[in-house]
Write a structure and sequence with these properties.
Elements lengths: L13 E5 L3 H11 L4 E5 L2 H10 L3 E7 L7 H9 L4 H4 L3 E5 L4 H9 L4 E4 L4 H31 L11 H18 L3 E8 L2 H8 L1 H17 L6 E6 L2 E7 L3 H16 L3 E3 L2 E3 L3 E6 L9 H10 L30 H11 L11 H14 L5 H14 L1
Parallel strand pairs: 1-2, 1-3, 3-4, 4-5
Antiparallel strand pairs: 6-8, 6-11, 7-8, 9-10
Helix pairs in contact: 2-3, 7-11, 8-9, 10-14, 12-13, 13-14
Length: 384
Amino acid sequence: MDTKDTTPQFIKPRVLVVDDSRLLRKAANKILEREFDVLTAEDGEDGWEKIAVDDTVQVVFCDLMMPILDGYELLERIRSSSEPRISELPVIIVTGGDAEEAKEKALGLGATDFITKPFNSIDVLARAKAHSKNQQKTQELAHSNALLAQTTTIDASTGLGNKLYFVEKIKQDLSFSRRHRLPLSLIVFEFTEYNNIFLKNGKKVSEKIIQQIAKHISSALRTEDGVARVSASQIVVTLLSTTGGNADMLCHRILESVRKVNFLIGGQRLDIRLRYGSYAPTSEGALTADEALLRLMESLGEKTPGPKSAASKDFVVSGKDETSGLIKSPEIRSDVDHTITPVGSEDSVNEKQLALVLENITVLYQSGDDVKKAAIMEMLRKIQ
């Protein structure tokens, strides 16, 4: 009965020898062929083409003096590649015995090691083994890190959760809110200038800003709230036992907190603007976590703070009773009259609504309390 050989086949590591000397290519192949799969190229351009299409090459042996594309140019092209598997390749330069200046130049371009002509078999084999083994470990580590990045729930830059974390958090909060009939609110903040700053100033600057924004958002939350970075410019929050109105109040507090931060680029202050959206998933029945996140993203921009019009000025209260710490009613009426759209316009306020505002402001508004200020601003917006 015939049986198939199931013994795992040993796959030799692949090395590339780039040299315009046919004799040296043959010599290198003879030395390495027992333990390596050897590719050869007769000039730098030929070598580059083989590297570009073959992702199994682990080590490159390269002569310096070659036609079309010399060893320096090939080395520079390898190191400047946008693909890590190419830019991080070990490149062993083959030089003449007295070529110290050439070695120094090659080292400056990123050469990994050197072999001196005429080379011997022991040196060539030892260098090939050492660098092939290191490259294999590097590739395995990169693969492990890539897998880890797919399964981790932490955004490395901000320390917040990532999208994977947030979807799981929504699942838990949806289940809990339905079981206990509690309100649930979701919020999304977007740093609208992230891409522009990234292109103009680089990733380091744009990430520094998003890190600061993340800190301000996190500091305003409770321990039971969930917060995650779901894209380069977007941070989302889940608020259990929180109504939509209270979620909006929190948003305004965070926006004001971020607005006060001095973000400097080149000595100039950058005015950071966030837009936000909010959504209450429990209001639409049994949504999945992904559907709830989609609804949240659809709300983004609906509540973008826009430029203030003449009829929508900053709300400033001028008079305060020194004994009670509450705002005096006449001063409130005067300030509200100047803040809300004037009577006679399309969005005018009737006396009953104004009385309700005054009643609530007198109770809520105390100087220096951002929560109460936000509540007042929300009432004014609703009346408008």
